Amino acid sequence: MLKKRVITGLWGLPLLVAIVWSGEPLFTILLAVWGGLAAFEFYRLVAKVKAPTLTCFGLVWTVFLIASRNSQLIDFLKPCLSESLLLPLLLTSAVVLPLFWLLRRPQRENAFAGWAWTIAGILYIGWLLGYLVALRDLDHNRTWQSWVFLALFTTFASDTAAFFTGRALGRHKLAPNISPGKTWEGAIGGVFGAILVSLFFILPTPLLLPLSWWQAVVLGLLVSVFGQLGDLVESLFKRNMGVKDSGRLLPGHGGALDRIDSVIIAGIVVYYYVIWVIR
Length: 279
What we know:
Layout: H1 2-22, H2 26-46, H3 55-67, H4 71-77, H5 83-102, H6 111-138, H7 143-169, E1 173-175, E2 179-183, H8 184-199, H9 213-241, H10 261-278
Antiparallel strand pairs: 1-2
């Protein structure tokens, strides 16, 4: 398992860095494709509880929500649709359209559950993952890539440090009823790993960000803590669905959904930190 994780990371991480550094539209395309794959895994797992979700609708609206946070796309649509109406229209249609469609399904006793799961997938993946795209609009200069890299790298550092610290020192279970393998020692190690990487972004490198050392520490702490909570949420979801991994897309890492459980939360944390603290 560890060997597969390392091999996947060796080819996956450079590819991710190249796409983020290249900027738009590749970055939004990457998130839209990844979000679509994650949504597919989400709805496939939900099918295990026999909820009649609208999978195709959920996939399309997930991609729509991610892409709708791209300012270039919004500018392109302005002659036809007002920017202030785009997101409300997508969110409203995500709620209303599947409800009407599911009324025609024969499994009427599970229709409401299918409607709720359909919306849950769209919001959990599409709306939340879109925050990484929205980071671009906070700073149109080269700095926006650095904010994205901070969200990604601190999350990866937190996950990696938690994994190895937990294996070496883990004694006290963090949430045994949700994820038996996670420990408090691993969680603390993850926090220190995230803080250490976040401090890299105050050094004079091409990724330099307007952060003081204490701001970098706080941001790394927040990303790690909330990212680990996001990981537990997805672990609870998978446990309720009766599976260990959401898929097998990435050897040693699981599926697409497995790899964004913490990243989704990291994007939100960094986005609002920039708005409330930095700007």
